[in-house]
Design goal:
DUF4143 domain-containing protein; 2 helices; 85 residues; 6-stranded mixed sheet; 6 strands; alpha/beta; globular
Length: 85
């Protein structure tokens, strides 16, 4: 497993990407609030083959944006489900 970040030449970035055997498994953007999907997360979802995008926050909202393979969820839920801790 590897951990890296994703950034383009216009400095759009995602906080981190988890890779297995050099293949991205999912990307994560960390935010305080969960009002809407990060523009950068949406940008990379439209332009990459990363299978799943998470926007993790400190609030309570938990919902999916299926056409972008994205989920906005609380940090505690992310840890329980995605990391299975």
């Amino acid at each position: 497993m590897e951990l890296c970040f994703l950034r383009d030449n216009l400095k759009r970035e995602v906080d981190f990407v988890v890779l297995r055997d050099n293949v991205p498994i999912f990307a994560v953007e960390c935010n305080i609030g969960a009002k809407s999907l990060s523009k950068h997360l949406a940008y990379f979802a439209e332009r990459t083959d990363i299978p799943c995008f998470y926007q993790v926050h400190t609030g309570q909202d938990d919902y999916e944006i299926a056409d972008l393979r994205a989920r906005i969820l609380p940090f505690t839920q992310f840890v329980e489900e995605v990391l299975q801790v």
